[in-house]
Amino acid sequence: MKKVITILAIGTMSLSAFIPLAHAEAQVIVPNEMEQSEIKENDALPESLVEGLDKYVEFTEDKYILNIPADVKSTYSVEEIMAVQTQIDESNSFLSVAEADSHTYVDEAAKTTNFLITDSEVLKAAGQKPMLRAAGVTKVVRYWWGMKIYLSKTFLNYSGGSLTGMAGYMVSKLPLKHPFALLAAGAMGAIGVFGTSAKHGYVIRITGISTAATVTGIWRQ
């Protein structure tokens, strides 16, 4: 049975400062089993536009390229094409300054850049002895249209008991700018999950990289 929760999602933000410019009510579905959430569109790219043009977005080495056949391009408005291209340009700007380390890898087939840390690393950093069952992972998966943040139960348990505490913990452990961490922490707080209250891992979907980053879904792992 699905539990539907209405949250207030930040509609627009910048990477330099957390300045909410617009708000929109978002339907966040938390199913018993992990599945994509359904949500009313706001400032983010419409899901239909992302799905329709994703196959025409190529990922070559360190950048995305929009390559739409003329017959397909004619079925979209100029505004839609411009919106997608703007998002791709922003994603490329982010990729150009992203730092790679041992936790980061590129999946060219999936067209993603991925950052991953294990529960064992989280426990060691907290001064705890890693448990055999600590096999979970926390990761940030970046797409041309935005990102998905996978937070393990263990990661959430050590993330603090407040919005600012959780956001600060995410910034210290993950390649996230503070505004994105605040968006993710706010989404978790909206469903009442902070610190040791986490009974499951969660996935947070954010559409947009800079000018209109919006939480467009949250569900259990």
Q: How would you portray this structure in words?
A:
The chain contains 7 helices and 10 strands. It has a 6-stranded antiparallel β-sheet with strand order 5-6-7-8-9-10. Helix content is 30%, strand content 28%. The N terminus is likely disordered. A hairpin with a 6-residue loop joins strand 9 and strand 10.
Protein traits:
7 helices; alpha+beta; disordered N terminus; 221 residues; single chain; two-stranded antiparallel ribbon; 30% helix
> Can you write the helix and strand succession as a string?
EEHEEHHEEHEEHHHEE
> What is the general shape?
elongated
Record the strand order, biggest sheet.
Answer: 5-6-7-8-9-10
Strand composition percent: 25-35%
Structural class label: alpha+beta
- The residue-averaged pLDDT reads 78
Please tally the helical runs, counting DSSP H or I stretches of 4 or more residues.
7
Helix content: 25-40%
Distance between the termini: 15 Å
The biggest beta sheet is recorded as: 6 strands, antiparallel
Q: What integer value in Å does the Rg equal?
A: 18 Å
The stretches of 5 or more residues where confidence is low (pLDDT under 50) are: 1-42
In total, the number of strands is: 10
Report a brief summary of the structure.
This protein is of the alpha+beta class.
